[in-house]
Amino acid sequence: MLAKVYVTLKEGVLDPQGSAIQHSVELMGIEGNSAIRQGKYFEIAFNEDVSREEASSTAERIAKDVLANPVIEDYRVELVTSK
Amino acid sequence: MLAKVYVTLKEGVLDPQGSAIQHSVELMGIEGNSAIRQGKYFEIAFNEDVSREEASSTAERIAKDVLANPVIEDYRVELVTSK
Question: Which string of DSSP letters, residue by residue, matches A44-62?
């Protein structure tokens, strides 16, 4: 069982790293895109004997308490059976 | 049109940041997960007048040339019509 956690900045929170990437892309002459925002992505691998419910609640807890800062970031947890 | 780009370390590449998170999680007494790996996540917003094909090739180029290091990282591009 694998949990995929996506952490993104909330709407309205400034993203200087994303802006810097967008600026680089423009300097390279690539056109058509208007904005790039950076987020984080995590894969949590669970032991074989962990049930789907346990994995879901554990992944949710890890995302909330460790991976994301709920003040400025949103997170989304997705469970997949195999890698 | 929005492109989502997922960048992950290739199998076998050491991930000290992921290991540090895993260690913290263990110290917090959370059990059942065996490994955490960290990756990156980007959202590229395209202008309205850009076709799906253009968006796809531009996102692919940005991912390959700017966002990922192909020596140690894999990337995956996903196009979504609305946010």
Answer: EEE-TT--HHHHHHHHHHH
Please, what are the domains in chain A?
A: 2-80 (3.30.1280.10)
A41 Cα to chain B: minimum distance (Å): 5
Per DSSP, chain A holds a count of helices (H) and strands (E) of 2, 3
| Residues 6+ positions from A22 with CB-CB distance below 8 Å | A33, A35, A36
DSSP for residue B47: -
Percent of chain A whose pLDDT exceeds 90: 86
- How far apart CA B71 and CA B3 sit, in angstroms, is 22
pTM (2 d.p.): 0.87
Contact A33 B44 (CB under 8 A): yes
Q: Model ipTM? A: 0.84
How far, in Å, CA of A47 to CA of A24, rounded? Answer: 41
- 8 Å CB contact of B39 and A37: no
